[in-house]
Amino acid sequence: MKALVFNSFGGPEVLEYLEIADPVIEPDEILVRMKAIGLNFADIYRRRGNYHLAGNPPFILGYEGAGVVEKTGANVQGINVGDPVAFADVPYANAEQVAVPLEKAIPLPETISFEEAASVLLQGLTAHYLTKDSYAVKENEIILVHAAAGGVGQLLIQIAKLLGGRIIGLTSSMEKASAAKKAGANQVFLYSDDWKRKVLEETNGKGVDVVYDSVGSTLEDSFAATRIGGTVVFFGMAGGDPAPVDPRMLMDTSKTLTGGDLWNVLTSREERIARSAELFRWIEEGKVTVSEPTVFALRDGRKAHHFLESRKSTGKILLRP
Fold first, then answer.
1. The pTM is what?
2. Which residues contact 16 (CB under 8 A, 6 or more apart)?
């Protein structure tokens, strides 16, 4: 089979599209012929060498995708050859075929396409746990969302609105501000603005109830924009590592810093299916909209990585075998 691989850490140029051996499935696994693969910033971190990565060289990126069951292991029940499935946390997804443990296989309803599933699962489940587990958004709370036009950002806005929140988004361009407003943000400020001052003015000097920070290098500013007793949820480093947080500041302001990682939430097949089912139901009911993805051929993985790192993308980037 063909796969997108790399042997050393570095920029997009280390990626190669090569023929490698087909995966051999275990008794509790299924073989999935991939139809759509999600590209995420975690793939960038892994390619650079500053994020956990499964296996040994040649490395295969990707943890999210959707496709059709091609073969089932001896112990597999309830999933058959030809069934459409998706997954959010299975390594080696940047390939034509992927061995998927039954525990991590999420059946797709007829109403959800391969492209929608690969666009929404990892980022949608992330937005789901961030707004329900990391910090449970409540009616009329004011929420500040960093990178509001990104894949997680747009879904965070929609789900937080569903839960009754009022959303302020932060983006890097007017085009992205438009995408964030289309997703439902009540107000959007640009990073090039004096956004901390504007957020404080917008909240009558108090600050927001919660900040969802996926940029990392903005963490200190996020605290400055948070009310006394408020919360900052740190869940990404797209803009670089955050500065250390002084615990005395947390004590003096009664503010909370919490982190979030999807792998700590998706701990069973029941969790995966239940959370995915709620996400799919919101999509079916039109309460959550998945923006049109930007699609690259898997063989053009370098171009896809360049595009994601350029910060010009809004919404999801998919790779298609």
1. 0.87
2. 4, 5, 6, 7, 58
